What does this fold into?
Amino acid sequence: MTTTNTRDAVFPAGRHDLYAQHGYSAAIRSGDLLFVSGQVGSRPDGSPEPDFPAQVQLAFDNLKAVLNAAGAGFDDIVDVTTFHTDPENQFGAVMAIKQRVFDTAPYPNWTAVGVNWLSGFDFEIKVIARIPATA
It folds into this structure.
């Protein structure tokens, strides 16, 4: 039986080594949906940004790059999951950036999860977006 790889991988410019090193795709397009892997606030060398608000902003910037590579943007996001190593103390910084990115209702779904390990990072965001018909 012959199988066809139905995964349509999407990668932003300049981050292929990070994904290849860890064996996953930045995002998978399936029909008009885009399933984006968790994005972290990694600097160009792959290391975590030490300043927490800057780390969160960088995670959103990295997310934007993946969305843009698929022809989508923040307005196309329908579902968000975020992971936090210290939710109680980090939530204010995350909300400040979230409110700048998602500044108009209706807002996407949002689930925030407290975790105890993110491979050296303190914040991660993964999303599902609908790819516009023009993309």
